[in-house]
Design brief:
Elements (H helix, E strand, L loop, with lengths): L1 E10 L2 E11 L4 E5 L6 H9 L5 E9 L2 E2 L5 H6 L2 E4 L6 E5 H15 L7 H14 L4 H4 L2 E2 L5 H15 L3 E5 L7 H14 L5 E5 L3 H6 L4 E6 L2 E6 L1 H10 L2 H8 L1
Parallel strand pairs: 3-10, 3-11, 6-9, 9-10
Antiparallel strand pairs: 1-2, 1-4, 4-5, 7-8, 11-12
Helix pairs in contact: 3-6, 6-7
The structure holds adenosine-5'-triphosphate and magnesium ion.
Length: 250
């Protein structure tokens, strides 16, 4: 589904990604871990099409289609979803209106009619119940005054509504209380299928107790320096990152 080959990217004259290779197949869950500043959010932003970064070499494709020439919204229409590490506040646009617009824009791009209002309401009700989101939130301005955890839960609500092919969750677990973590994780698990894939960026093994990854990758200094199965996350929790640094010098 997602194929990244030898991706190099810069911002200004600083090289941040230094040759990333990553293959994500449908039905898989990948976790990306790594120290602060390693380039994890940068990688997520570049997949989603953030134009502040310059891709200097390498390629990213989704189901065989090169993403390089596609604008962020075109990538979204093709099923790429990014849950932001720091969700932005949009005063004056309600959660419901935001999601309605996002869904209908995607449908339009796919040549479909707008979703009928009653069906939209039904789906909104179902998904907000799935994620135990208080109905009051749905009429509030997007993220405005939301607590950290409420913003993260709302990101997963958007994901649940959009049913993306490829969901990238950038530290969605940070700031969630223990109950919210379980609710968000079970939401992600319910949405998982053999047709979609999830890339989870996290600092904590804890989330991976709930959403068990097929692969764990360690991103350090702009490169994936180690990959393994779920047990790698446990090993990182125990030993930190230094041993990998040393290992990769040998
Ligand atoms: N606009 C920018 N200008 C300068 N440097 C930037 C810019 N954006 C990102 N960087 C740098 O790129 C590096 C990678 O940042 P990134 O946000 O991808 O790290 P991260 O792995 O997500 O870290 P964290 O775990 O703290 O979220 C950092 O050193 C950061 O300072
Ligand atoms: Mg980050």
């Amino acid at each position: 589904m997602l194929s990244i080959k030898n991706l190099h990217a810069t911002i200004g004259d600083k090289e941040i990604l230094k040759g990333i290779n990553l293959e994500v197949k449908a039905g898989e869950v990948h976790a990306i871990m790594g120290p602060n500043g390693a380039g994890k959010s940068t990688l997520a932003s570049i997949i989603a099409g953030n134009e502040n970064y310059e891709v200097t070499s390498g390629e990213i494709s989704l189901d065989g289609e090169d993403l390089a020439e596609l604008a962020p919204e075109e990538r979204a229409h093709k099923g790429v979803f990014l849950s932001f590490q720091y969700p932005v506040e949009i005063p004056g646009v309600s959660v419901t209106n935001f999601i309605r617009t996002a869904i209908n824009e995607t449908r339009k791009a796919q040549g479909l009619e707008e979703m009928p209002a009653n069906q939209m309401l039904k789906v909104i009700r179902e998904k907000s119940e799935l994620l135990e989101i208080d109905r009051k939130f749905l009429s509030r301005s997007l993220n405005e005054g939301f607590s950290g955890g409420e913003k993260k839960r709302n990101e997963i609500f958007q994901m649940a509504m959009l049913e993306p092919k490829l969901a990238i969750l950038d530290e969605t677990d940070s700031g969630l209380d223990i109950d919210a973590l379980r609710i968000v994780a079970s939401g992600v698990n319910k949405l998982k299928s053999d047709k979609n894939a999830v890339v989870i960026i996290t600092h904590y093994q804890r989330l991976l107790d709930y959403i068990v990854p097929d692969f764990v990758h360690v991103l350090m200094d702009g490169k994936i320096v180690k990959s393994g199965d779920a047990s790698l996350a446990l090993e990182l929790e125990e030993k930190g990152y230094d041993w990998i640094k040393q290992e990769s010098f040998v």
